[in-house]
């Protein structure tokens, strides 16, 4: 929000918003997901543009609503309209606002994790990297296999915690090997997962959302 | 031609279930729209004529490409200026490997490339791997399994993948190019095609023009027999030849 | 039919994760396949051409499936015109009976087999053995696992979980060979043992990579030459093929032969491709006198019937989705509990076998989507997994197929997410409940929530923020209004 406002975007936060419904959809509970998704449409359909800070939420809205409402043509139409004006955060800044310099400043090496849905559903790969590159004092240091899954997978991470953690171990290894002081991702799920394990293990690397990095202005805050 | 085997009693019911799974009640009468099925014999002939012309025009680059892809696929590639040189290359390979039992097919290419004389000159006497009145199929198999080198011609060689199409028939046993641990294939320039597409277009035309005499069996040989089934370690020469030579005339 | 052990998924995957040796081979082999595939595609075609090829292959396979009854009929006519016999088997039992009947009629004692996944579905080795007929797998990997009494670990690398020491031990026991650490030596042992079988066998059984409808040609893709042996040495050749293996025209093979080996092993082409459409001609020097093609349903109709799942039948069994799957790469193939493993196994096993027994499989994925990107026939595996999850959670299986925790959670979530007030209320409750376990903004253990305790075993869970974002936002707006010049810099 801070970043968007800094760019001069007129931002609002509809207070009645809750969730896009992906969690139930991915669990197979489609009718419940549909109820929640309809609430999402109610809240957002009159907005000019919807900016979503998480790759998987954005892909739910832009890609999977089509599937969710395939037998409900009326809602499908609404969903498509909202889907079209929905942009993921980094994509919005780079391709709609048209800048990769948001006036942020920080320091050190930062590595970037390609969140699966962001990369493979929305095909957003360069925008977040451009934005990281635009932060003064920060250098992007690619990790090995940045596009490898972190093992979160929503429900998967609680249903199969052992497998999920084993996949995450690989991710943590490549993050650590990159030598970066921070890992940036654009998906709240991946971040919760990665951060949770790094904190448990006392790793001295910070996991942050791209927006958090972009909000930094070099004043340590 | 042997009689056509009968239809399986479960066929009709099976197809009915498939059809109903697809949400249809009646069989499809018209051929589904599929580009590579549509072309009839006349059009296929036209297509093949173009393919042949292109391959003729680009023969020398196709030969170079074949030599390149073959080397990359672990073939030992030798190019011979003429038939005589080809024959002596075969003899040289046999001699270097200390070959004792050499079998070859009976094909036209050996009328042009006289490997028998060349082999005899280095002390190897080739045997023709073919069954006959004096040789049962069991004996043929034993002979093939005993041989330490096999030599045959090809129907086509495909530059794209270094694939040699070998078509077993009278005079060309399946086992000649399979059972011995060492294989030499003789390739004549006009047998070389640029791509897999070229090959299958020609195959389709041949089939359309066969009139009852169809070829039920052919192989691509595209390199040495290999496996990586133990610890992902590449090992050559499991069931087929581990050492493969391509002698290209031209 | 082969036993379905998918209900054991969780336990079996745990075992695999704790097997260090297995973890090592998985990493090594998968990395090799992934690297080889990427480089051969880049060298030979580039991303754009490859994408176009995948699109074309997907369209051909999909169209074939949409007209499957037509093409099955075409295959039948073509093969019989070539002098071969064609059978239609509804299930594994029928297919087994057909093969057994052919074997018995011909007094067959030894059967040599070239890799066939359908034969794994059928569990035919067991059936043959029971009748006193010896089945011998001839693909080296399959041979090893047959000696070990196991099932394939991977579609194209069935014995990748075995070390050379284990193979040597198996060969010592079964072939009475000397112990060795030399892989080449081990291959020679296998070659010699199998040569005897090739010479003795009366019948060869192979699978089919493709069955060409217009010509009745079965195409086999192998590297070792066992496929050629199986189709050359014995007097009878039986092909077992899933009914979805059809491509319409012989010219389609060019495309599929470009896609399959590159996707599978990263090879430009395999060492051998065998094309066989019937018995040998009377004048031929060698080759089988009888040719039998058994087209098998065995649960495939369940996929065909479901318009969403139908595309799973496009699969050409390359194994690329396994090699690239973060889950498969950690747990390997056996945990999936049936013949097909990895992402493709997770989508075909429940409909082909038993939804209830295999209900964990659709959930055994992070939905990362890599499988979809590497699939040579563009099967949208994540979408199909979600479709199956929907069936498990809300479909014919009934409520009991998900855990009570999951249902409770989704119920509560559903209540909270349809209006903000309810959400804030639940969130406040959550803050209250987790506060005793939170240390410095983290929750290390949540003893009362079994669904989440798996998470907190290895990872911290973020404690709910003391104030919600909505509340912070309200405060920020109020702050802005009070200080209209703003406090932000930049």
Please identify, by name, the CATH architecture of the largest domain in chain C.
3-Layer(aba) Sandwich
Content of β-strand of chain B: 15-25%
- Assigned CATH superfamily of the largest domain in chain C: NagB/RpiA/CoA transferase-like
CATH C-level class of the largest domain in chain C: Alpha Beta
CATH class of the domain at 60-195 and 214-225 and 240-249 in chain B: Alpha Beta
The number of distinct helices of chain B, counting runs of at least 4 residues, comes to: 9
Secondary structure tally, helices of chain C:
22
**Low-confidence segments of chain B:** none
Tell me the CATH topology of the largest domain in chain C: Rossmann fold
* Mean residue pLDDT of chain B: 93
How does this structure look, described?
The complex is a heterotrimer of chains A (221), B (250) and C (490). By secondary structure, chain A is of the alpha/beta class. Chain A has two domains: 2-93, no CATH class; 101-215, Rossmann fold, CATH 3.40.50. Chain A has helices at residues 2-6, 22-27, 30-44, 55-68, 73-84, 89-97, 116-120, 126-133, 155-159, 161-178, 188-200, 210-215, and strands at 50-52, 86-88, 105-112, 136-140, 182-185, 206-209. In chain A, the strands form two sheets. Chain A has a four-stranded parallel sheet with strand order 4-3-5-6, with helices on both faces. In chain A, strands 1-2 form a two-stranded parallel ribbon. In chain A, strand 5 (182-185), helix 11 and strand 6 (206-209) form a beta-alpha-beta unit. Chain A is globular. The model of chain A has no long low-confidence stretch (mean pLDDT 91). Chain B has 250 residues and is of the alpha/beta class. Chain B has a domain at 60-195 and 214-225 and 240-249: Rossmann fold (3-Layer(aba) Sandwich), CATH 3.40.50. In chain B, a hairpin with a 4-residue loop joins strand 5 and strand 6 (163-166). The longest helix of chain B has 17 residues, at 41-57. Chain B is globular. Chain B starts with 10 loop residues before the first helix and ends with a strand. In chain C, 57% of the residues are buried. Chain C has 490 residues and is an alpha/beta fold. Chain C starts with 8 loop residues before the first helix and ends in an 8-residue tail after the last helix. Mean pLDDT of chain C is 90; it is low at 486-490. In chain C, helix 16 (342-352) runs parallel beside helix 18 (381-394). Chain C has two domains: 6-301, NagB/RpiA/CoA transferase-like (Rossmann fold), CATH 3.40.50.10420; 404-482, no CATH class. Chain C contains 22 helices and 13 strands. Chains in contact: A-C, B-C. Chains B and C meet through helix 1, helix 8, helix 9, strand 9 and strand 10 of B and helix 2, helix 3, helix 4, strand 1 and helix 8 of C. Strand 9 (217-221) of chain B pairs antiparallel with strand 9 of chain C.
């Amino acid at each position: 929000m801070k970043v968007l406002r800094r760019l001069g975007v007129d931002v609002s936060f509809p207070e009645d918003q809750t969730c896009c419904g992906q969690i139930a959809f991915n669990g197979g509970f489609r009718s419940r997901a549909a109820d929640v998704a309809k609430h999402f449409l109610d809240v957002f359909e009159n907005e000019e543009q919807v900016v979503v800070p998480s790759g998987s939420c954005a892909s739910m809205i832009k890609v999977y609503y089509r599937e969710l409402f395939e037998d409900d043509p009326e809602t499908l139409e609404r969903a498509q309209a909202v889907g079209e004006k929905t942009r993921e955060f980094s994509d919005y800044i780079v391709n709609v606002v048209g800048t990769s310099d948001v006036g942020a400043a920080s320091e050190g090496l930062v590595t970037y994790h390609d969140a699966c849905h962001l990369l493979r559903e929305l095909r957003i790969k360069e925008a977040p990297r451009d934005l990281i590159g635009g932060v003064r004092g920060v250098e992007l240091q690619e990790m090995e296999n940045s596009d490898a899954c972190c093992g979160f997978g929503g429900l998967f991470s609680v249903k199969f915690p052992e497998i999920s953690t084993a996949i995450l171990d690989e991710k943590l290894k490549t993050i650590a090997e990159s030598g970066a002081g921070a890992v940036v991702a654009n998906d709240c799920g991946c971040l919760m997962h990665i951060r949770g394990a790094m904190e448990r293990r006392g790793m001295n690397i910070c996991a942050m959302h791209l927006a958090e990095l972009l909000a930094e202005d070099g004043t340590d805050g | 031609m042997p009689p056509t085997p009968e239809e399986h009693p479960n066929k009709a019911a099976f197809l009915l279930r498939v059809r109903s799974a697809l949400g249809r009640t009646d069989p499809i009468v018209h051929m589904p729209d599929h580009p590579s099925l549509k072309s009839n014999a006349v059009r296929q002939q036209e297509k093949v004529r173009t393919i042949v012309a292109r391959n003729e025009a680009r023969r020398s680059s196709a030969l170079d490409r074949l030599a390149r892809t073959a080397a990359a696929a672990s073939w030992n590639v030798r190019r011979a200026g003429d038939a005589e040189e080809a024959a002596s290359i075969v003899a040289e390979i046999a001699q270097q490997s200390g070959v004792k039992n050499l079998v070859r097919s009976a094909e036209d290419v050996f009328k042009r490339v006289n490997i028998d004389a060349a082999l005899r000159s280095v002390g190897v006497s080739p045997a023709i791997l073919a069954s006959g009145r004096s040789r049962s199929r069991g004996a043929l198999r034993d002979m093939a399994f005993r041989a330490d080198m096999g030599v045959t011609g090809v129907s086509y060689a495909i530059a794209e993948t270094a694939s040699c199409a070998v078509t077993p028939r009278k005079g060309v046993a399946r086992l000649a190019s399979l059972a011995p641990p060492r294989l030499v294939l003789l390739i004549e320039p006009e047998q070389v095609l640029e791509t897999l597409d070229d090959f299958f277009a020609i195959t389709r035309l041949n089939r359309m023009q066969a009139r009852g005499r169809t070829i039920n069996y052919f192989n691509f040989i595209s390199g040495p027999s290999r496996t990586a089934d133990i610890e992902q370690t590449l090992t050559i020469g499991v069931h087929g030849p581990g050492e493969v030579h391509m002698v290209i005339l031209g | 039919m082969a036993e379905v052990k998918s209900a054991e998924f969780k336990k079996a995957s745990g075992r695999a994760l704790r097997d260090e040796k297995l973890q090592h081979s998985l990493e090594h082999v998968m990395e090799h396949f992934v690297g080889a595939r990427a480089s051969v595609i880049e060298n030979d075609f580039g991303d754009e051409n490859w994408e176009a090829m995948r699109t074309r292959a997907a369209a051909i396979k999909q169209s074939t499936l949409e007209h499957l009854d037509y093409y099955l009929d075409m295959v039948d006519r073509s093969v019989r015109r070539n002098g071969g016999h064609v059978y239609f088997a509804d299930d594994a039992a029928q297919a087994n009976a057909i093969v057994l009947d052919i074997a018995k009629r011909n007094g067959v004692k030894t059967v040599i087999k070239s890799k066939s996944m359908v034969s794994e579905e059928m569990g035919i080795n067991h059936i043959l053995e029971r009748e006193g007929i010896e089945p011998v797998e001839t693909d080296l990997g399959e041979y090893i696992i047959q000696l070990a009494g196991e099932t394939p670990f991977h579609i194209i690398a069935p014995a990748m979980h075995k070390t050379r020491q284990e193979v040597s031990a198996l060969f010592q026991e079964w072939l009475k060979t000397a112990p060795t650490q030399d892989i080449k030596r081990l291959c020679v042992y296998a070659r010699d043992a199998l040569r005897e079988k090739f010479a003795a066998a009366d019948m060869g059984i192979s699978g089919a990579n493709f069955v060409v409808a217009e010509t009745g040609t079965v195409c086999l893709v192998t590297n070792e030459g066992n496929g050629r042996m199986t189709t050359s040495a014995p007097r009878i050749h039986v092909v077992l093929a899933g009914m979805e293996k059809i491509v319409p025209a012989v010219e389609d093979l060019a495309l599929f032969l470009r896609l399959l080996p590159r996707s599978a092993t990263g090879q430009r082409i395999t060492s051998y491709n065998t094309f066989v459409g019937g018995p040998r001609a009377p004048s031929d020097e060698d080759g089988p006198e009888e040719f039998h093609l058994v087209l098998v349903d065995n649960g495939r109709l369940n996929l065909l019937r479901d318009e969403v799942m139908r595309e799973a039948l496009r699969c050409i069994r390359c194994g690329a989705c396994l090699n690239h799957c973060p889950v498969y790469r950690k747990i390997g193939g056996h945990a999936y509990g049936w013949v097909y493993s990895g992402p493709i196994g997770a989508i075909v096993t429940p409909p082909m076998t038993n939804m209830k027994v295999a209900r964990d499989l659709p959930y055994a994925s992070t939905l990362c989507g890599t499988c979809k990107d590497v699939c040579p026939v563009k099967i949208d595996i994540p979408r199909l997994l979600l479709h199956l999850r929907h069936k498990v959670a809300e479909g014919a299986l009934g409520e009991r197929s998900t855990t009570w925790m999951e249902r409770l959670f989704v119920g509560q979530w559903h209540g909270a997410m349809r209006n903000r007030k309810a959400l804030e209320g639940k969130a406040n409750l959550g803050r209250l409940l987790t506060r005793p376990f939170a240390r410095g903004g983290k929750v290390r253990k949540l003893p009362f929530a079994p669904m989440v305790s798996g998470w907190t075993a290895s990872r911290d869970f973020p404690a709910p923020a003391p104030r919600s974002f909505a509340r912070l936002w309200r405060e920020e707006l109020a702050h802005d209004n009070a200080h209209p010049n703003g406090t932000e810099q930049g």
